[in-house]
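In the current project phase, we have settled on a layout for protein records. One protein thus recorded is set out beneath this paragraph:
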Amino acid sequence: MTFLIRTIDFTAAGREIIRDRMHEGDTLTIGRSADNDLQLPDLAVEQHHATIEPAGEPAGEHAKDGQLRAVAAGTLGFGQDGKTVTEALFDPATGTELSFGSYRFAFSQEAGSPVTITQTQITDTASDSDALSGFALASALPSKRIMAWVGLTVILLAFLAIPVYSHLTRDRDREVDAEKPGQVAMDSSWSTGALSKAHHDLEDNCEACHVEPFQSVQDSTCLTCHEAIDDHAEIPRQLTGAGPISQGDQIQWDIATYLGKEGQGSCTTCHTEHEGKVEMQPTTQAFCADCHDGMDKRLTDTKLGNAGDFGRDHPQFKVRVRTGPGQLEPTRMVMTKGMTDYNGMIFPHDIHLDAGSGVTRMARSLGAKGYGKTLVCADCHTYSEDKDDFAPVKMEEDCAACHSLVIGRDASGFRSLTHGDVGKALADLRSVAGASVGAKRAAVSRPKPRGLARKRPGRTGSASVPGRRYPTFGKPKPSLIATNNILSRTGVCAECHVRTTVNGRADLMPVFQSDYYLVKGRFTHEAHTQETCSTCHAADTSSSSSDLLLPDIAVCRDCHIGEKIGQRPTKEEVPSSCAMCHQYHPPSGKLPSDHPAMKADKPALISRNGR
């Protein structure tokens, strides 16, 4: 079947442009897609809108020779002579008009000629607009210009005038309460995003941080709440360690400083808000490495070693130890192999952990204590939930099961020696010795009638008491040899403590138990519960309590390989950035003198109401 498709277009001057083309085929497709026979660039037309083909046998008894059928291919119908239909049966010889969106197709056919389809696109006429204007909103609303001015006035009042007025008239003496809305009305409309989870309670109190309008948040405002935050280092020293910035960044900083933003090193340099209700993300390694990687070239007087990545570029640990007996204050120094820490104790770990030692056999006999066949570290070292680490070892709780402190028995029960104070311990022993001597003295001087007792020369007792008595040959004197022996080389105290003399008298060295050796780093045993103690601490080979049983950096690098995974696939790898062990702000609460909050015209701490 042959179709003659005639397209009529109009120029801007109104002149008609007619184009004819022939289409061979029994099927004619219409739609917006480019693969249709009749492509109509109209959004009111579906991609494949309709199909036109000869009626043929499927049309039934109503079909006649030469008739065509138009069938909608999608969900939208089409127009036929002013009616909307989804299927149309027509004879092109008698003529009909089909409409698709703004396009019209007039069908006609003369005898012996192909079917002619005339395609035109209609536009709204003035009469059509006038006919529909009564149903449009424009007939009931003001003009667009008036509505634009009204909208602008509402925006200026609601989002500018009201917030500014309420800010200028608010009560500045009122304390900020996170549970109550702020005093500045409509201030939330100026927010660029939700606050982080840490500051989310201040979502409706913009004036808590933005003390002055159109001014960046100042350090003094941050320190109102975060008063225990110290600076990482003095600001000029930090900037020198970080190195110079690019010219473009310097221009941006100059503009920001001119507009009220504090310079580099202020809180907002690193901490940005209104990024969404999220947790504070750990600092990336690059943030620290920008300064600490090759820092000795910029800070020639620094005592810190360069650190760019824990797995490949990090100095050996520095620990706080006492390098000699009697040293009261520890010294921080680089860890070396075989380093000692004199803590005033004599304690061999290897004997206590040896399954065949006498210590273990004695502990095994104390079944009530719950010891196993071999002593383990947890028998003496207990974890403290309050400290979030191991609690200090206490004699009364952790050692007395084997090393008894019982020195006697009285009416109230067993009496124990006071531990931790040499003077009180000696007093306890003297009181026990005195009680024993007093008992012997009473037994000797007690009257004992002896009717047939033989007289002996010498004192025979008091004449006021009748009867004969056993004579006494001198007053008993208490012996303090056992009391003084506890501080001797073979005494009971010397089994665990280092002896010394104070002002010519026997005494014991003070005992130190370091809570933390790595003062510049953060470590928790809780994160390492999957490991055994011997993985990091060689206690089973230590014969002296002065042995420093800390792992060096090589042991830690077996698992902690730096920030990126994949450097050493031989073991389980733990990505370890700087923030895992170090914190940027020391929690001392003392700020350097050059900190912006310590300026002469600005107090270090201000009240929460901004005064």
Observations:
- DSSP finds 13 helices and 20 strands in the chain.
